[in-house]
Amino acid sequence: MVSSTYRTGTWLGIVRSGSVIVLESNTSPNIVNRLWDFLGQDPTIHGVLNEVTNQFGTGLTGLPSFAILVQSDKLHAILRGDITLIAHLNGSAEVVSGRDVSTWSERSLVLPESLELTMADPDADETALDLAVSEAVVRLQSLLLDTAGNRLAGDVAANDVPAAVELASSPEAKVCPLKPSTTPGRPPLFGLLKAKMRLNLRPRPAGFKTPMPIWMAPPCTSPLPARSR
């Protein structure tokens, strides 16, 4: 999730690892800390739901209000209580509400361009501020996430990955198909741009062999020529 902004309020928001958990204002700090740690472990929507519900030691009907957002190939949302999610994509809006349900509302949506999560907060201060947030625990009444940049990078990487990249400085080198980077922290687009930057340098001395970025290197049917030392 990219470009996150929240409006100050009384609910507790845990924002980490592309995921969001919102809890009622009187939630124990111990629960908040445990959930913060859990979000640092590559969370899934049902893993987070299980962890949240286990914290309160009560049956389904006794659970407090909460919201969970997890982004993967889709946006997964679980809402319980007076909480509303509005997801915007291609000029249309999809609304999910946690009101008037005995357990919770659960939806999986196409990744939106932006979304707004709003909690009913009658105790919020009239002088509420709109502030940026990356990864933190904050007091909030709403959260606005702009994911358009993230979608663009993913679309470019999916549609414009070249079938092969030739190592210009090594004419006898084997040409191998490239795949988008799967290394954590390096989006596919980043890897491709990095590779192009390294392969488009000015001419090197004779015999110099330009290395391929290690996170982009594909398996070959035959080894590359040995590098002279």
What does this structure look like?
With about 230 residues, the protein is α+β, with helices and mostly antiparallel strands. The protein is built from four helices and ten strands; from the N terminus they run E-E-H-H-E-E-E-E-E-E-E-E-H-H. It has helices at about 30-40, 45-55, 150-160, 190-200, and strands at about 5-15, 20-25, 65-70, 75-80, 85-90, 90-95, 105-110, 115-120, 130-135, 135-145. Strands 1, 2, 3, 4, 5, 6, 7, 8, 9 and 10 form a ten-stranded antiparallel beta sheet that branches. It is globular and about 40 Å long. The two termini are about 45 Å apart. The relative contact order is 0.16. Mean pLDDT is about 75; it is low at about 150-205 and about 210-225.
Summary?
The chain has 229 residues and is α+β, with helices and mostly antiparallel strands.
Notable characteristics:
10 strands, 229 residues, alpha+beta, 10-stranded antiparallel sheet
